[in-house]
Fold:
Amino acid sequence: MSILTVLLGLVALFPAVDPVARTGACEGAEGVTVAVGVEAEVLVRCVSGSPGDARTALERSGLAVRLGDGPGPYGDSRYVCRVEGLPDGDPCTGHRGGASFWKVWRAGLDPVAWRESGTQDGPGAVRVCPGGLVGFVFGSKTAQMPVAPERVVTTPGWLPPRC
Structure:
């Protein structure tokens, strides 16, 4: 058996994976910071690189994410149904009108504050870029992020990028 055959066999055992997310906010343009309000806490992860959109950033965050089948609360397919097992008991087969859902937030400027995503197409349509911050919270249409952006990304002078 040649060395090349052995190496190719080893590569097959270890498939390529997305860049590893880590706990805590990203530093500078290292990646996108994802903040998720789960019950009484906020889970913060740094997703390396440029995931492109909020749903992909959440999926790459290392948190347990279950996407739903059928139409989501924004009319999107493959909507965010559960994060870290919450809410339990939802079969993830489509959003029921008026029911709570995972609302997506982005950090905006003037002043630095959470802004509703402003899209009717769900988190897959919310652009994110390195240095940015995106938030998710479960609740009704009036649900708010439980902490200010400055409590998530604590780097002095941090401002969300325009992307």
Remarks:
- The first strand starts at residue 22 and ends at 23.
- The radius of gyration is 18 Å.
- Residues 4-18 have pLDDT under 50 and may be disordered.
- The CA atoms of residues 100 and 141 lie 7 Å apart.
